[in-house]
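Example record for the data management plan.
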Amino acid sequence: MIMKNSPVSRKRAVADAAAASIETRASWVAAAAALGVMSVAFGAPYIAVVGLRDIAAELGGARSVPALCYSFAWLGTAVGGVAMGGIAERIGIRWTAMFGAVMIAVGLALASFGGATQLYIAHGLFIGVLGLGGINAPVYVYVARWFDRRRGTALALISSGMYVAGTVWPPIFTQAIAGFGWRETMMFFALVEAAVVLPTAYFFFDPPPAGADSPRPGGPVLAVGAPVLALRPNLALALIAGASFLCCVPMAMPQSHLVAFCGDLGISPERGAAMLSVLLGTAFVSRQVWGYVSDRIGGLNTVLAGSICQSTAVAALLFTQDEAGLFAVTAFFGFGFSGIIPAYVLAIRQLFPASEAHWRVPIIMLCSGSGMAFGGWIAGALYDHYGFYGAAFAAGLGANLVNLAIVGFLAARGWSEPDARRHRVHFADATRRQTSTTL
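Corresponding structural encoding:
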């Protein structure tokens, strides 16, 4: 007879948990392909970021014009994700991702030929709504269905694609814009988008495994319409969505204005682009750490921890003016904000039924993307009004503090719930307890 909690019973429980899991080698192939697609697709909006001063100089001098391009791209991505999430549910992620790649290429080509109006349409409609909208939120939902034990880690990995894009592409764009111009750089990158994303999506975005939306063994069964954190489900979603908007306002400011901010301080564009790469490179590495953490403490608690770090870094930007200090602050900023967005997605999957993920996740991405869009735009508008970035960073800090109040309220309700621990239990641990009880 095998005793409960004996080494043999524990090994058997772990083995049973692994056997019951939907995770396989194919899960990580799908995640790696998604990372590659995101790393290239999200390079498109960074051309307007790196070329902000050049584009502004050519179009009349107002930095709010190219800053608004970046904002329109994020807003379009957020809006498009809601519609494309439903379409991907019906026809599959392979085809929405391929369509999105073509639209990004069309948008870059259009932007390269036009003035302000064409730039807005290209970034908002083609790059945003139809392009990244068909890739971003649908890919999150798609990859989450391949995982049950390490979902937080997988989501952190694929969401790092935008930071791989921000690390790899800005230095290349800086050299290309200096040597050929921002219009030619957009045309070149349109070809790169089509050449990389189309075959990757076609060959690697296979359908997720059967039973991907079923409750995991030993995990909670989340009923449709059941209270979430002792709140009505849609009220809980609204609070999470509002918090995601507020945290993304300051999140966008350094990412979209860092190169220009450095230029105002007398730091060269090359060093500014390098600083942006450090910020996003740090975000990529630390996001994997946050993914590991979120699998253990839950999505909502990870959002709270990341938001505290981000607000600290935004406050530090208000008082840092030298190059060495900015490198340090931007690296810490990258560490702080990097785990927040995938943690929101994980929280939705932990708090709501899996059958609702295809529309609840895009709503969160809509609000977070809208926050990114608003943050990028308002920073440029405040700069144009006041002539320096301090006012923008102060506004971003204020938004972050309101975000902390909302997330803290929700997290505290989770801590006080009698069954809150169910959202923070690792899959193998839950199955181990169930198996031990049976034995």
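Summary line stored alongside the record: The two ends are 9 Å apart (CA to CA).
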